[in-house]
Design brief:
about 400 residues; mainly beta; Methylamine Dehydrogenase, Chain H; four-stranded antiparallel β-sheet; WD repeat and FYVE domain-containing protein 1; phosphoprotein; zinc ion binding; endosome
């Protein structure tokens, strides 16, 4: 990663404010408590903890609760102070936290899944708890009665979830690399569409209900922006991570996307510009530049008495080209390529130096990041992962910090 990091002035980096240590196993989720100097964490060590910042500046656990099974996912609703914890055994447990965050009462258990819970969303208006799991399903349950309202099954593990509270649409990412858009009803649901574009399992989703944009991160190291509301089917590809993208958060006020990967990479993408959509890869039996046959084109190879060539694709124009006609590599950030990628020789000539200016900043979190959460109003971010450490970051140096963007000074 280090070789690829763009050098920036020290002032434009995330500032590490605190490290929270104490868990004995992977920290699967960490959430900042709005308007409080506190963090809620859930871990594979079967504990859920609430950490409050003391006068010393250190975070100490005010609540330490042991569960029956490793904790795999968590949702927190601040206005009602309700915590929902998903477990490895498929159950979701609801707790209510006291106003001073020093006591937590058990409310009820939801038999949501037959296997590990991967994501949870709580909707107060409908009193639903919606979740995905490794039993290949999304379920929605009534929080008043604790009863199951509906389930929908997929062909692969359901790995992540986003929800539009207004329209009751759920976005479910799975291990096959597909995203399914569902319309949830009281006791049934309908499949609206499926989104296919990733070459690896979906690891994270973010829905922006204002601009109606869906962002997906995957194990193929890439992020795709899906324009759900406006230009139907329009997608933007973002490639800047060296490992699977574990978490994403779109900041609507500043039009920036924050993403974190398993190797500790933190990227901040500028989405406030007109980006170009990556082209569809074209199919051809011969190079679309020099017309030499590809190795499966037996007839042309025989007719021209030439050996077939390997097929490649130019990332800028999408044409099928041979190695000799695509000897150059270039970054092309306007299309989301922050790395050097294969381009045909004619496209390379058309790319100016200013076209190679990065449209993202890259930073090193220096720990495995499995989960990330942001408090956008304060410009704070919390990251956690398999190294059992929770880190709290001041992101205002890289995502804007003026009152005009909605951030208050800390």
């Amino acid at each position: 990663m280090a070789a690829e990091i763009h050098s920036r002035p020290q002032s434009s980096r995330p500032v590490l404010l605190s490290k929270v240590e104490g868990h004995q196993d992977v920290v699967s989720a960490a959430l900042l408590i709005p308007k409080e100097d506190g963090v809620i964490t859930a871990s594979e060590d079967r504990t859920i903890r609430v950490w409050l910042k003391r006068d010393s500046g250190q975070y100490w656990p005010s609540i330490y609760h042991t569960m029956s099974s490793p904790c795999s996912a968590m949702a927190y609703h601040h206005d009602s102070r309700r915590i929902f914890v998903g477990q490895d055994n498929g159950a979701i447990m609801e707790f209510h936290v006291s106003e001073d965050f020093n006591k937590m009462n058990f409310v009820k258990t939801y038999p949501a899944h037959q296997n590990r819970v991967s994501a949870i969303i709580f909707c107060l208006t409908s009193e639903w708890v919606i979740s995905t799991g490794h039993d290949k399903c999304v379920s929605w349950m009534c929080t008043r009665s604790g009863s199951m309202l509906g389930r929908h099954y997929f062909t692969s593990w359901a790995s992540c979830l986003q929800y539009d509270y207004e329209t009751q649409h759920a976005f479910v990412g799975d291990y096959s690399g597909q995203i399914t858009l569902l319309k949830l009803e009281q006791n049934t649901c309908s499949v609206i569409t499926t989104l296919k574009g990733h070459e690896g399992s979906i690891t994270s989703l973010w829905w922006d209900p204002v601009q109606r944009l869906l962002f997906s991160g995957a194990s193929d190291h890439s992020i795709i922006m899906w324009d759900i509301g406006g230009r139907k089917g329009r997608t933007l590809l973002l490639q800047g991570h060296h490992d699977k993208v574990q978490a994403i958060c779109y900041i609507q006020l500043t039009r920036q996307l924050v993403s974190c990967s398993a190797d500790g990479g933190i990227a901040v993408w500028n989405m406030d510009i007109s980006r170009e959509e990556a082209p569809q890869w074209l199919e051809s039996d011969s190079c679309q530049k020099c017309e030499q046959p590809f190795f499966w084109n037996i007839k042309q190879m025989w007719d021209t008495k030439t050996l077939g060539l390997r097929q490649h694709h130019c990332r800028k124009c999408g044409q099928a080209v041979c190695g000799k006609c695509s000897t150059k590599r270039s970054s092309y950030p306007i299309m989301g390529f922050e790395f050097q990628v294969r381009v045909c020789d004619s496209c390379f000539e058309s790319i100016k130096d200013e076209d190679r200016t990065s449209l993202a900043t890259f930073h090193e979190g220096k720990h495995n990041i499995a989960h990330m959460s942001m408090d956008i109003s304060r410009g704070l971010m919390v990251t956690c992962g398999s190294d059992r450490i929770v880190k709290i970051w001041d992101m205002t140096p890289v995502v804007g910090c003026s009152l005009a963007t909605g951030f208050s000074s800390r």
